[in-house]
Design brief:
Helix content is 11%, strand content 49%. By secondary structure, the protein is mainly beta. Strands 1, 2, 3, 4, 5, 6, 7, 8, 9, 10, 11, 12 and 13 form a 13-stranded mixed beta sheet that branches. Strands 15-18-17 form a three-stranded mixed beta sheet, covered by helices on one side. The N and C termini lie far apart (47 Å).
């Protein structure tokens, strides 16, 4: 098995045997064989990845993440499964996928998102804009009604910084987009404009009440 990993602040794109394309977000990994053999094309991920799977009805493509399996023939989808997130999210942009583990098995349609929470609860919902889930692939931070904790988890992974909260966490939600090419101070400046106070010391961002 081969393994490709991206560090914090990194992003990588490559093509697997049989032509499927994979984009890895920061702090993520993909394990895969050099050559797919047998009845399936099986890979395993940590973190977040976007797939454009080359169709092969004789050899379905399977993504393993934690105890869950996502199976496809040919499709475009995103999987977000960071350990520090409250839920694993699978977002389908094109085609169809089956997502299953010991507790459930469901089919997704384009524009739907499967959410598996750490407590084991599972739901499928229509997303307002599936492109939100894959904006990172185009080098964009894109938020829709996101809390400050969720935003700062993304910032920590991309800028390789430590984030802490001084006092009560601001109970605000944010919608917007900004290039991931900007400096951390510029992202924080955008949040400050929307009422979030902070201080930056070396590689440590403290969000203030």
């Amino acid at each position: 098995m081969n393994r490709v990993s991206t560090p914090r602040g990194g992003q990588y794109q490559f093509v697997l045997n049989y032509g499927s394309k994979v984009w890895l977000n920061s702090e993520s990994s993909l394990s895969f064989p050099a050559v797919f053999k047998g009845a399936t094309r099986e890979v395993e991920i940590t973190g977040e990845a976007y797939f454009e799977v080359a169709k092969n009805t004789k050899m379905p493509f399977r993504v393993k993440v934690n105890n869950t399996v996502i199976e496809v023939l040919g499709t475009h989808f995103n999987v977000m499964a960071y350990d520090d997130e409250a839920a694993m999210k699978t977002t389908l942009l094109e085609g169809s996928v089956k997502i299953s583990n010991k507790q459930f098995s469901n089919l997704l349609k384009p524009g739907q998102q499967a959410v598996l929470n750490q407590n084991g609860s599972f739901k499928i919902s229509d997303t307002p804009d599936a492109d939100d889930a894959v904006a990172w692939k185009a080098g964009i931070f894109q938020f829709r009604d996101a809390g400050i904790e969720a935003i700062m988890r993304q910032a920590a992974r991309w800028y390789d910084v430590r984030v802490s909260f001084a006092g009560k966490i601001p109970a605000k939600e944010f919608t917007g987009r900004i290039s991931r090419n900007v400096k951390a101070s510029e992202l924080m400046g955008m949040l400050k404009y929307m009422g979030v106070n902070f201080k930056i010391e070396d590689k440590h961002i403290t969000v203030l009440p």
